[in-house]
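Q: How do we represent a protein-ligand complex in a form that can be generated cell by cell?
A: Start from the inputs.
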Amino acid sequence: MSQIDGLIKMVNEENEKRHSKKNITRVISVASGKGGVGKTNVSVNIAIAYSQLGKKVLLMDADLGLANVNILLGIIPNYTLYDVISNKKSLEEIIIKYKENLDIIPGASGFYQIADLSREEKDNLINSLNKLASYDIIIIDSGAGLSDNVLSFITASNEVIVVTNPEPTALTDAYGLVKAISLTSEETEIKIVVNMIKDIKQAKTVYKKLYDVCYKFLKVEIKNLGFVYEDEAVKASVKKQNPFILSYPDSKASQSIKHIVLRLEKLDHILENKKGIKNFLEKLFK
Ligand SMILES: Nc1ncnc2c1ncn2[C@@H]1O[C@H](COP(=O)(O)OP(=O)(O)OP(=O)(O)O)[C@@H](O)[C@H]1O
Ligand SMILES: [Mg+2]
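Then emit the C-alpha cells for the protein with magnesium ion bound:
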C-alpha cells in the first residue's frame, strides 16, 4: 500500500468514527490576490478529492466575473443562485449533482453584490442556504482580488485557502489579501497553497517569504497547506473540461491535491472554533 493509500484508509476510518458525532459543516473559501493563479482548479479538484473520501461536498461558484467552475467541468447550468435570490427557483432546483457526494451551485455571470440585495432577497438567500447544513464541507471559489463581495465570503468562512504562484506579483497580491482579511476578521484561519511550483525547494522558499512578511508586518501566522506542481496534465484537463484528478489521477498535480486534502482533514481535527453554516450566513449578511 502506498503512503497516500495508507493515509486515505486512515481518513476513512476517522470518518466512520465521526459519523456518530455531531457533524458541523465546514465552510472553506478559496481566494487569491492576483487572478489566474489556479483558484478554480484548486477548488474543483479539492472538492472532488474530498468527495472521493466519502464526504458530502458542495462546491459553490461565487466568482463575480466569469462562471469559472462550470467551464472547468463543462457544465451549462439552466439556473443560478440569482434565481433563488429572486424567489423564482428553490435551492434544490438549481443544485447540480455532478457526481456521487459532490453537488455544485453554479456561478451567475455578473453575480449580484451582496451589499446591494434588498432585505427580502437576503432573507430568501438565508432561508435557502440554511438547508446546506447537510453537507460535510462547502468549498467556495470566491474570485480574485479585494472586492467587498470577495471579502464578505472569505471573512464569513472559518477558513480561507489563499492560492498564489511563485511570481513576485502574485506573492505581493497574496500579501495584500492576507492583510485585508486580517484587518476584516481575526478569526478566519489563513492557509496557503503555492501553485505551479517546479520543485519542493522553490515551494518552501516561496512559502517562507510570504510567512515572514505576514508575520513581520501583520503579526499574522499563515499556515502552510501544501503545494501543487506545475503540470501539463492541468492544462490538458482544462482543455478537455475534465478535472485533472479524474482524467490524470496519477499526475503530480493530482498527488499534490491529495496531499492538500489529507492535510486539510488533519487540520480539521484541531479546528476548535468551527461554527458551521449558520454562523457563516450570519456573518455574510451582518
Ligand atoms: N498546477 C498547474 N500547472 C500548470 N498549469 C496550471 C496549473 N494551475 C493552473 N494552471 C493554468 O492556469 C490557468 C488558470 O487557472 P485557474 O482558472 O484555476 O485560475 P484562477 O485563479 O481560478 O483564475 P481566475 O482569477 O481567472 O478565476 C489554467 O487554465 C491552467 O492553464
Ligand atoms: Mg477562477
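The chain is about 50% helix and 15% strand. The first strand starts at residue 26 and ends at 32.
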